[in-house]
């Protein structure tokens, strides 16, 4: 699990470092996918990955996450589209290949580009190995890990920073891979976090002063919090988050948590993939404590509140 | 007398006394209450309508008439959503 996680991070890191140089994409294709150095390194060898960079006259002003997808039953191909068509990705389940056509103007998207063209397509194939990618933050405290799931903008990164400030360790702030091995385990995705200016202002005491806004919005969490990063953790509970006026928690029935998460967390494409998503998420929701968590961004009280509600009295919240 | 069977492309999971059905071809899912889940779990094609109606009346302590009405309405909905195969 450890080496796999690092490898994903490495891919993102390389793309980010070389975001203005399309040669990095050749390096990715040649060295990481086609020429596996270790025979058992399935991540590098189990599917074919192609990237075509198009020169066009598009101008992408900022990496906004507009996204759509459709599945072609006849061809058994999943089509993903980002940035109003500037990034098109076909995942061919039969040929086990990923074909990405991207506009040169998208190369500056850096880590986001790595996520779109690598992590999400890879996640489709990694299901075969029992690894499921979900859009959530995951934090650990004294050996217990909590998933915080919510749509973009609902505060996953903000909660992550706030709880790290209170002594929690970060597994991931936005992307998590889950494994069902005896218990459910979460493994972190990329260590870079997108931070809004508002979030930066709120955490300026720990993030430090910066002049990166408004053109750059990513920070490397492992640099800022080297002793607060964890590679993986055993999932204890799952919180569906939203911001509100107070800290309030309600126990959710597993079936309710499932309904909230099913379309939020997964791409449902071919029948086999959809079937395995269904199976996995149902088992996850039945095997951990599920909550609806409203939080008011007062992290001192949220920390105390979560310790009491989640870890000391997990059955007490109404459900 | 008809017998009904769950369609092959439907996955289902019980959550306590409720259940979720998923059509893996469309990605649409359906939530069933306790009575619906009980009926669904018995739609394996081995029992006909009358047998299942009798089981519902016994299990949920209701009249045969009420059980028959509820069962027929439920089967009609399942058929409309193509969740079951009908053998009449």
- Give the oligomeric state of the chains in this entry, treating copies of one chain as homo and distinct chains as hetero: heterodimer
* Contiguous helical run count of chain B: 3
Which homologous superfamily in CATH is the superfamily of the largest domain in chain A?
Answer: P-loop containing nucleotide triphosphate hydrolases
Tally the beta strands of chain A.
Answer: 15
The CATH class of the largest domain in chain A is Alpha Beta
Can you identify the CATH class of chain B?
A: Mainly Alpha
Adjacency order of strands in the biggest sheet of chain A: 1-5-4-3-2
Strand content of chain B: 25-35%
Overall average residue pLDDT of chain B: 92
Uncertain regions of chain B: pLDDT < 50 for 5+ in a row? Answer: none
Domains counted in the coordinates of chain B: how many? 1
- The CATH architecture of the largest domain in chain A can be named as 3-Layer(aba) Sandwich
Compile the SSE list and pairings:
The complex is a heterodimer of chains A (319) and B (88).
Chain A (H helix, E strand, L loop, with lengths): L1 H16 L5 H12 L7 H4 L2 E7 L12 E6 L4 E6 L4 E6 L4 E7 L7 H16 L4 E11 L2 E6 L6 H10 L3 E4 L2 E7 L1 E6 L3 E3 L2 H6 L1 H4 L10 E3 H4 L7 E12 L4 E4 L2 H12 L5 H17 L1 E7 L3 H14 L7
Parallel strand pairs in A: 1-5, 7-13, 13-15
Antiparallel strand pairs in A: 2-3, 3-4, 4-5, 6-7, 6-8, 6-9, 9-10, 10-13, 11-12, 14-15
Helix pairs in contact in A: 1-4, 5-11, 9-10
Chain B lengths: L2 E4 L3 E6 L2 E6 L5 E4 L1 H8 L2 E5 H11 L4 H17 L3 E4 L1
Antiparallel strand pairs in B: 1-5, 1-6, 2-3, 3-4
Helix pairs in contact in B: 2-3
What does this entry show, briefly?
With 319 residues, chain A is of the alpha+beta class.
Describe this structure in words.
The complex is a heterodimer of chains A (319) and B (88). With 319 residues, chain A is an alpha+beta fold. Chain A folds into 2 domains: 2-129, no CATH class; 132-312, P-loop containing nucleotide triphosphate hydrolases (Rossmann fold, 3-Layer(aba) Sandwich). Chain A is 36% helix and 30% strand. Chain A is built from 11 helices and 15 strands. Chain A has helices at 2-17, 23-34, 42-45, 111-126, 156-165, 197-202, 204-207, 221-224, 254-265, 271-287, 299-312, and strands at 48-54, 67-72, 77-82, 87-92, 97-103, 131-141, 144-149, 169-172, 175-181, 183-188, 192-194, 218-220, 232-243, 248-251, 289-295. The longest helix of chain A is centred in the last third of the chain and has 17 residues, at 271-287. The two termini of chain A are 34 Å apart. By secondary structure, chain B is of the alpha+beta class. Chain B has one domain (8-87): Coenzyme PQQ synthesis protein D (PqqD) (Arc Repressor Mutant, subunit A, Orthogonal Bundle). Chain B has 3 helices and 6 strands, in the order ββββαβααβ. Chain B has helices at residues 34-41, 49-59, 64-80; strands at 3-6, 10-15, 18-23, 29-32, 44-48, 84-87. The longest helix of chain B is centred in the last third of the chain and has 17 residues, at 64-80. Chain B is globular. The termini of chain B are close together. Chains A and B meet through helix 9 and helix 10 of A and strand 2 and strand 3 of B.
């Amino acid at each position: 699990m450890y080496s796999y996680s690092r490898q994903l991070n490495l891919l993102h890191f390389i793309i980010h470092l070389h975001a203005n140089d399309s040669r990095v994409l050749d390096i990715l294709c040649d060295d990481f996918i086609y020429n596996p150095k270790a025979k058992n390194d399935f991540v590098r060898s189990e599917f074919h990955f192609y990237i075509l960079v198009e020169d066009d006259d598009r101008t992408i002003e900022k990496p906004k996450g507009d996204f759509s997808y459709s599945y072609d039953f006849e061809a058994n191909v999943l089509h993903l589209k980002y940035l109003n068509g500037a990034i098109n990705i076909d995942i061919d389940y039969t040929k086990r290949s990923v074909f990405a056509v991207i506009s040169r103007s998208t190369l500056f998207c850096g880590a986001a580009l790595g996520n779109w063209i690598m992590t999400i397509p890879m996640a489709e194939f990694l299901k075969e190995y029992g690894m499921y990618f979900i859009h959530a933050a995951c934090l650990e405290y004294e050996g217990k890990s909590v998933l915080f799931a919510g749509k973009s903008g609902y505060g996953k990164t903000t909660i992550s920073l706030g709880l790290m400030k209170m002594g929690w360790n970060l597994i991931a702030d936005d992307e998590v891979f889950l494994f069902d091995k005896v218990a459910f385990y979460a493994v972190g995705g990329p260590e870079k976090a997108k931070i809004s200016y508002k979030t930066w202002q709120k955490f300026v005491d720990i993030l430090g002063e910066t002049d990166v806004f408004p053109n750059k919005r990513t920070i490397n969490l492992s640099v800022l919090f080297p002793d607060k990063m964890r590679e993986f953790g055993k999932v204890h509970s799952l919180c569906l988050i939203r911001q509100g006026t107070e800290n309030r928690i309600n126990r959710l029935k597993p079936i309710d948590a499932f309904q909230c998460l099913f379309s939020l967390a997964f791409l449902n494409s071919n029948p086999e993939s959809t079937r395995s998503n269904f199976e996995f998420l149902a088992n996850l929701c039945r095997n951990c404590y599920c909550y609806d968590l409203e939080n008011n961004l007062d992290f001192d009280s949220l920390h105390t509140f979560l310790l009491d509600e989640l870890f000391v009295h997990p059955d007490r919240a109404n459900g | 007398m008809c017998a009904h069977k769950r369609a092959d492309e439907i996955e289902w999971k019980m959550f306590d006394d409720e259940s979720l059905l998923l059509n893996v071809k469309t990605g649409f899912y359906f939530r069933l209450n306790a009575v619906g889940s009980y009926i669904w779990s018995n739609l394996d094609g081995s029992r006909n309508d009358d047998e299942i109606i009798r089981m519902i009346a016994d299990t949920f302590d209701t009249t045969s008439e009420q059980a028959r009405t509820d069962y027929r309405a439920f089967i009609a909905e399942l058929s409309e959503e193509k969740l079951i195969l009908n053998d009449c």
